[in-house]
Specification:
- This protein is mainly alpha-helical.
- The chain has one domain.
- Helices cover 87% and strands 0% of the residues.
- It has 3 helices and no strands.
- The protein is flat.
- The protein starts with a helix and ends in a 5-residue tail after the last helix.
- Keywords: Antiport, Cell membrane, Ion transport, Membrane, Transmembrane, Transmembrane helix, Transport.
- One of its GO terms (molecular function) is sodium:proton antiporter activity.
- One of its GO terms (cellular component) is plasma membrane.
- The chain crosses the membrane at residues 6-22, 34-53, 59-83.
- It is a multi-pass membrane protein.
């Protein structure tokens, strides 16, 4: 039962990644593209966690944590650049 749920989750998260990639490429505005990039990172984290559950390995969870930290810093930097035009003041 758990294997079927994991396989369904893989398919759904893969579809979410494809839709986020579409919004990233065809977004009407820069802020929409930044939001799509952040959501793409969150979906990648979910995919890594699913791989970790499926393979029973802790390395995927550590990689997901690093990706979450980098995604947060990247999103903050992009938003700051979008608002002020400069990252470092």
């Amino acid at each position: 039962m758990l294997n079927a749920a994991i396989e369904i989750a893989f398919v759904l998260i893969g579809a979410a990644l494809a839709l986020n990639l579409y919004r990233l490429l065809r977004g009407p505005d820069t802020s929409d593209r930044i939001l799509a990039l952040d959501t793409l990172g969150i979906n990648a984290i979910a995919l890594l966690v699913l791989f970790g559950i499926n393979s029973a390995s802790t390395a995927y969870f550590e990689a997901a944590l690093l990706l979450a930290l980098l995604g947060f810093v990247g999103t903050v930097a992009l938003c700051k650049f979008l608002l002020r035009g400069d990252i470092i003041e």
